[in-house]
Design goal:
Blueprint (H helix, E strand, L loop, with lengths): L2 E10 L5 E5 L4 E11 L5 E7 L14 E3 L4 E10 L4 E6 L5 E10 L1
Antiparallel strand pairs: 1-8, 2-7, 3-6, 3-8, 4-5, 4-7
C-alpha cells in the first residue's frame, strides 16, 4: 500500500450542493477540514459524507454557522472507501473557503 498525504480539496463552497472530493480508485483517510469565512457577515455551511441528505459531517441535522472573518476546524480520522464522496454547500457562494487534507491509500 502507498500513502499520499495531501490537500484533497481547496476552493470556495458553492451555494448549491456539489461533490467536493471523490476517492477515485483509492481509499482516503480524511484528517483535517477547515472552513474559513472570508465575508463580513456570518455564513452557514453543510458538509456530507457519501450522500447529501442525512450524512452530515459537522452537525447531525443542521447547517453550521461560521462568524464573519472566523473559521471552523475539524480534526479526526474519517475513512472513505473507494468511490466515497464529500459534498458541500454554503449559504452564499464564494464566501466560505473549504480545505480538506488527508491521505489517499492505494
Amino acid at each position: 500500500m502507498a500513502d499520499a498525504y495531501k490537500t484533497l480539496y481547496r476552493a470556495q463552497l458553492p451555494d448549491s450542493v456539489a461533490t467536493l472530493y471523490t476517492a477515485t480508485g483509492v481509499s482516503a483517510i480524511i484528517k483535517h477540514i477547515s472552513i474559513v469565512n472570508n465575508d463580513t457577515s456570518d455564513r452557514t455551511f453543510s458538509l456530507y459524507r457519501n450522500g447529501t441528505t442525512a450524512a452530515y459531517i459537522f452537525s447531525p441535522s443542521t447547517a453550521v454557522s461560521v462568524p464573519a472573518g472566523g473559521s471552523v476546524e475539524w480534526d479526526g480520522t474519517m475513512a472513505l472507501e473507494a468511490s466515497g464522496t464529500i459534498a458541500g454547500v454554503a449559504s452564499v457562494a464564494s464566501k466560505l473557503t473549504c480545505i480538506i487534507d488527508g491521505d489517499e491509500v492505494s
